[in-house]
Amino acid sequence: MHPNPAFRRTTRARNIAFARERSFGVLTLAGPDGPLAAHVPFVLGEDGGWWEAHLARSNPILRALSEPRPALVIVSGPDGYVSPDWYGLPDQVPTWNYVAVHLRGQLELLEEDALPPHAARLSAQFESRLAPKPAWTEDKMDPEALMRMRRMIRPVGMRVETIDGTWKLNQNKPEPARLAAAGKIATAAIGAETPALSDLVKSPPDID
Description:
Elements: H1 12-22, E1 24-31, E2 34-41, E3 43-44, E4 50-56, H2 60-63, E5 69-82, E6 95-109, H3 115-127, H4 143-150, E7 153-168, H5 175-188, E8 191-192, H6 194-202
Antiparallel strand pairs: 1-2, 1-5, 3-4, 4-7, 5-6, 5-8, 6-7
């Protein structure tokens, strides 16, 4: 997380909403031989207190979970390069704007019977965003094929203890400079989702 408090004023509710909207992140924890990471879709409770996902049984993270372990989930958003020329101010330096939310807590293995309801929640979460397409559900699968797939994965859960967000959107610059940079970010396309990043720079959450 960036240490500048100008980038960390976003409310807990906004950070939770952002993480829930993305529903995809990097799960990390310290393994016996070094850091471990997995890129996973997830379900986050409305109050941000419970996070759940699943991993392939061959994933080293599962082997490290003989007991609950401290873990970090990194949820990234739009990001992009900012040229000093765009501010219209002297003596500026290049930077990178971005949005990221960190979820920390105790990661644990869930029981086998937690997998079906977890999988149903996860697929329903994304299928609902495809309306008016009829939602895909597991009952469209052959039961034996479904069981084979389930045997390949294991559910994990985390009781979220802290949620921190960094919304680095040039809030530390004068408004004319920030808006000038926003206009260039949208078309420069050095980064990810730069049009969305441009909109956020124009109106950062903490100054809405």
